[in-house]
Amino acid sequence: MPFDFRRFDIYRKVPKDLTQPTYTGAIISVCCCLFILFLFLSELTGFVTTEVVNELYVDDPDKDSGGKIDVSLNISLPNLHCELVGLDIQDEMGRHEVGHIDNSMKIPLNNGAGCRFEGQFSINKVPGNFHVSTHSATAQPQNPDMTHVIHKLSFGDTLQVQNVHGAFNALGGADRLTSNPLASHDYILKIVPTVYEDKSGKQRYSYQYTVANKEYVAYSHTGRIIPAIWFRYDLSPITVKYTERRQPLYRFITTICAIIGGTFTVAGILDSCIFTASEAWKKIQLGKMH
């Protein structure tokens, strides 16, 4: 007797003349196909969409920065002349720089009565401050007006990612034009290192920050202290990391197989139960007629 390879077929076929179509089976089959299509489209959308996951850890992510953080500041002082405006930087490593001018620009406002300061500079990764003041001016004004609007204050690389909503420019739009002109302003910043890694593994380093502020007129034994706009910062030891991820192909295929197989199995059980109950009910009705 020749070997018949068809013995290995576990999916034996039933001749069509031995099967019986029903309206209930047709309804269940259509609903089953629609349900599978809905789940398939949902899984396909999740498969082609890039997911951004975040995690927290304790470390310095940008060890190649040389212990520096790039800062971008854009601020307008509408009632203070440009020749009076300066940027001072100091920190706990002993840095004390008055009148920082590198990579900075002063733009006159209100026909020269005001000034817009734009600057890019770096700070050390230690607690410190930088402040906008008149300390670097040749002659100190009697009553400097420190009312201002902050257009931008950011640290590190600029992240423009749709799925990441962080406080990268928390002070952007801060308006202090109605404040006391002679008051100093203290902005207390807590800087949080942030890493964004795309699908290719390329990393970008930025910094988010939280802010608290206060306004005050300071005095000493010699009289009123010249006001300034202070940005006092400290770094958080916690790093936030955002990572782009896409669902693996094998997981997508596994999920689709589970959807199709599970749906057809449940639908088959449901159809079998309905058909068996229907046949039993018909027999009961025939028994009553006899």
Automatic annotation (TrEMBL):
Q: Which domain of life is it from?
A: Eukaryota
User: Where in this chain does the record put each Endoplasmic reticulum vesicle transporter N-terminal domain?
Assistant: 5-97
GO CC terms of this entry: COPII-coated ER to Golgi transport vesicle; endoplasmic reticulum membrane; endoplasmic reticulum-Golgi intermediate compartment membrane; Golgi membrane
The processes (GO biological process) annotated in the record are: endoplasmic reticulum to Golgi vesicle-mediated transport; retrograde vesicle-mediated transport, Golgi to endoplasmic reticulum
Keywords on this record? Endoplasmic reticulum, ER-Golgi transport, Golgi apparatus, Membrane, Transmembrane, Transmembrane helix, Transport
What InterPro entries does the annotation carry? Erv, Erv_C, Erv_N
Task: Supply the Pfam families for this chain.
Answer: COPIIcoated_ERV, ERGIC_N
User: Keyword Transmembrane helix: yes or no?
Assistant: yes
Say yes or no: keyword Nucleotide-binding present. Answer: no
According to Swiss-Prot or TrEMBL, what is its membrane topology?
A: Multi-pass membrane protein
Which intervals hold domain Endoplasmic reticulum vesicle transporter C-terminal? 109-271
Q: List the subcellular locations.
A: Endoplasmic reticulum membrane; Endoplasmic reticulum-Golgi intermediate compartment membrane; Golgi apparatus membrane
Coiled-coil parts of chain: none
Locate the transmembrane regions by residue number: 20-41, 249-270
Function recorded in the entry: Plays a role in transport between endoplasmic reticulum and Golgi.
Q: Which PANTHER family does the UniProt entry name for this protein?
A: ENDOPLASMIC RETICULUM-GOLGI INTERMEDIATE COMPARTMENT PROTEIN (PTHR10984), ENDOPLASMIC RETICULUM-GOLGI INTERMEDIATE COMPARTMENT PROTEIN 1 (PTHR10984:SF36)
Q: Can you tell me which family this protein belongs to?
A: Belongs to the ERGIC family.
The molecule here is called Endoplasmic reticulum-Golgi intermediate compartment protein
